[in-house]
């Protein structure tokens, strides 16, 4: 006779069963949860200043391959448009004499074409052929000066200035100078460099980013918290850095032009690096700085310079007539006075 074996039974208390199920839910959720988005960044030196690129991504490793591509993009812009690199594409063009024509790279042609368009629209307030005057006043690669040039020197330099003397052929990308022009892209190339960084980000599939070179910026998309990119507009003071206004950006380029950083003084007179191509002299009006918002940073850069040259009255009216988002800071006896176009107001942060 075989003894019967008692049947073993296991009873799970209800609370234990629920606890087990809850643990498994956490495990499964952990396996399916996507990596959280965060703001990544790279920075470095370029164009005599610094650059910073920030973007939203859930892939921290993206810094390793995006960083070098950004560097390559900036090197290409410098090699095409710098007047400080002797063998750059632009330097070789400037070294050639009157009547010289050549096919240029697509990027350089794009910038020259935009520059000519702004020059025509502003009746010469913006002019990239102002290079001889920039060098004469000591704001170019030839180095600083401590004395203002004589009128005869200014008149001689002006003979080599005039955007109308620079001919562009879109079909062949050919650029020709009728006289011994010296093209200086310092008022637009930095903005174009920002746009090139933005192109890299978009090519990489980045939908939210903030790119900046020396204070010129371009933003797209939202940060992980769902807000736009907040940017501070600097107050045009000589001592320290103060915030004048804060704006929120989503899909735009930003550039600021002012006379409060780059200048020299002689006999109690301050000579700004912003030159009026029509007079050959630094601006002398009360406009301290202009910030422009535009779809591309290159356009914002060029327009900011043009409005600065025009001054607070003519520049403001031009911005209103052309529906430009512009913010003016004007010097007065009582301090700084703000003036903005209706298109700019929508960007103000609360």
From TrEMBL:
Keyword Cell membrane on entry: yes
Enzyme class: transferase
PROSITE patterns: PROKAR_LIPOPROTEIN (PS51257)
Cofactors named for this entry: Mg(2+)
Cell location: Cell inner membrane
Top-level taxon in the UniProt lineage: Bacteria
EC number(s) stated in the UniProt entry for this protein: 2.7.1.180
Coiled coil (UniProt feature): none
Membrane topology: Lipid-anchor
Catalytic activity from the UniProt record: L-threonyl-[protein] + FAD = FMN-L-threonyl-[protein] + AMP + H(+)
Pfam families assigned: ApbE
GO molecular function: transferase activity
Keyword vocabulary terms for this entry: Cell inner membrane, Cell membrane, FAD, Flavoprotein, Lipoprotein, Magnesium, Membrane, Metal-binding, Transferase
Keyword Transferase: yes
Its biological purpose: Flavin transferase that catalyzes the transfer of the FMN moiety of FAD and its covalent binding to the hydroxyl group of a threonine residue in a target flavoprotein.
Family: Belongs to the ApbE family.
Name of the protein: FAD:protein FMN transferase
């Amino acid at each position: 006779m075989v003894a019967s074996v008692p049947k073993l039974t296991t009873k799970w208390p209800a609370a234990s069963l629920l606890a087990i199920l809850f643990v498994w839910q956490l495990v499964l959720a952990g396996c399916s949860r996507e990596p959280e988005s965060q703001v990544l960044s790279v920075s470095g030196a370029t164009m005599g200043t610094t650059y910073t690129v920030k973007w939203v991504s859930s892939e921290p490793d993206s810094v390793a391959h995006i960083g070098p591509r950004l560097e390559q993009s900036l090197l290409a812009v410098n090699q095409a448009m710098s007047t400080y690199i002797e063998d750059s594409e632009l330097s070789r063009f400037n070294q050639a004499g009157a009547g010289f024509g050549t096919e240029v790279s697509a990027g350089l042609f794009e910038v020259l074409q935009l520059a000519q368009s702004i020059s025509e629209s502003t009746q010469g307030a913006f002019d990239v052929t102002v290079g001889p005057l920039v060098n004469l006043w000591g704001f170019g690669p030839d180095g600083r000066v401590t004395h203002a040039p004589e009128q005869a020197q200014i008149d001689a330099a002006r003979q080599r200035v005039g955007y109308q003397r620079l001919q562009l052929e879109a079909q062949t990308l050919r650029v020709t100078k009728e006289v011994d022009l010296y093209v200086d892209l310092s008022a637009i190339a930095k903005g174009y460099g920002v746009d090139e960084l933005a192109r890299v980000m978009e090519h990489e599939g980045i939908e939210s980013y903030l790119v900046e070179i020396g204070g010129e910026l371009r933003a797209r998309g939202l940060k992980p918290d769902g807000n736009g990119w907040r940017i501070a507009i600097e107050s045009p003071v000589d001592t320290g850095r103060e915030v004048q206004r804060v704006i929120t950006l989503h899909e735009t380029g930003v550039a600021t032009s002012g006379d409060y950083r780059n200048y020299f003084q002689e006999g109690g007179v301050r000579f700004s690096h912003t030159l009026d191509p029509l007079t050959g002299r630094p601006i002398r009006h009360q406009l301290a700085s202009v910030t422009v918002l535009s779809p591309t940073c290159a356009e914002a850069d060029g327009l900011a310079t043009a409005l600065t040259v025009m001054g607070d009255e003519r520049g403001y009216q031009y911005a209103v007539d052309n529906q430009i988002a512009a913010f003016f800071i004007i010097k007065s006896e009582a301090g700084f006075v703000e003036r903005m176009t209706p298109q700019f107001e929508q960007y103000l942060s609360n």
